[in-house]
Amino acid sequence: MQQTEKPVAKKQRVPNAERSAKTREKLIEATINCLYELGYHQTTTVVVAKRAGVSRGAMLHQFPSKADLMIETAHRLRDMRAATHHEALGHLADPREKFMKLIDVLWEVMISPSGLARLDLMLGARSDPELADRMNELNDELDIFHKARIWSQAEAMGIHPKYKDKIEAFTQLYGAATRGLAMDAFRPKSREGAEKSIALLKEMQLDFLEKLFSDTDT
To answer: What's the whole-model pTM score?
Structure first.
């Protein structure tokens, strides 16, 4: 009796756009991990491609240069940070409570692997002429966005518009302070001191806010 052969199921091809997106995702994730583990200068495109399990040709097709890869990674890190802020603060209705949690949330971001990867990327970009201007442009946009967002919280608390400059200065201060302390916390023996410094910064934040309320009421 002759057996009927079963038809062989055709393997479905993944659309090019989907394959391309997955490749980019692998490369960006690998870049973040390499920045955290190896630092900017050792995070070469060759190392990233190997870590991502992607061919050199596929790598260059997505990102023709290291600068292209790094700026895309910087955008991804920005989005990750925004998502963390939204998750931690988005459900809070009280603008004062949001304001008082800003330092805690940013500190947790800064000392996370992705936060430390971004710090290394920022420092490394200074010595990379192809990347420096693009990173400066991105960071300038972020600075404007963060100051506007924090000022909107201050307005919601009833802070007088004449103190907008001080709110913006405080926004820059706590951002720079947490970045510097995160770098200092690289040293294991310095971590405890960095945590105490963050606690002191929060006390200063409360005193600053109380003074603004006091001046607004008079």
So the answer is: 0.86
Tokens of 77: 């890190």
CATH number of the domain residue 80 falls in: 1.10.357
Evaluate whether residue 70 is within a structural domain.
yes
What's the pLDDT score for residue 214?
A: 84
pLDDT, tens only, 85-143: 999 999 999 999 999 999 999 999 999 999 999 999 999 999 898 899 999 999 999 99
Residues 58 and 70 in one domain: no
pLDDT tens column, 31-46: 999 999 999 999 999 9
Mean pLDDT of 69-76: 97
Instruction: Look at the chain and report how many structural domains it folds into.
Output: 2
Q: How far is the first Cα of the chain from the last one, in angstroms, to the nearest whole number?
A: 102
Q: Are 40 and 80 contained in the same domain? A: no
The pair of three-digit structure tokens given for residue 73, joined into one six-digit string = 């990674």
Q: How far apart are CA 21 and CA 67, in angstroms?
A: 19
C-alpha–C-alpha distance, residues 45 and 63, integer Å: 9
8-state DSSP, 193: H
Q: Which domain holds residue 183?
A: 66-217
Q: What single-letter DSSP state applies at residue 108?
A: H
- Phi and psi, residue 46, nearest 5°: -65, -45
The tally of CA atoms less than 13 A away on the side-chain side of residue 26 is 19
Last residue of a domain, one of 40, 64, 88: 64
